[in-house]
Write a sequence for this structure.
């Protein structure tokens, strides 16, 4: 499955022959208190929070897998115009990652 953030598959020698519709993926990741404490220390002293980065990377991978699964169910060859959003929920201890793109068939 081809997944692109660009609106059209330029330079691939293939054209969009059919637009199948939007596909959406989402993942919500809860952070436990240990990660919050570690991230808080990093916030004070500087540096990267490997625990948050690992959770965030996993959430993005889950969202991409969901997008691909939903696009395949529509019979798509590709998803174009993919866009991600990230937000915190509740008291900031949960991260929500979402993505939306357009499922298409290519020539």
């Amino acid at each position: 499955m081809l997944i692109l953030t660009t609106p059209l598959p330029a330079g691939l020698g293939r054209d969009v022959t059919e637009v199948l519709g939007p596909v959406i993926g989402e993942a919500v990741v809860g952070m436990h208190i240990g990660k919050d404490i570690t991230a808080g220390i990093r916030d004070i002293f500087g540096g990267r929070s490997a625990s948050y980065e690992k959770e965030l990377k996993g959430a993005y991978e889950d969202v991409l897998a969901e997008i691909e699964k939903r696009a395949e169910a529509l019979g798509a060859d590709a998803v174009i115009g993919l866009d991600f959003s990230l937000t915190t929920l509740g008291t900031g201890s949960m991260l929500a990652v979402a993505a939306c793109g357009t499922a298409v068939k290519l020539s």
Q: What stands out?
A: The chain has two helices and four strands. The CA atoms of residues 66 and 102 lie 13 Å apart. The first strand starts at residue 2 and ends at 3. The chain has a mean pLDDT of 84.
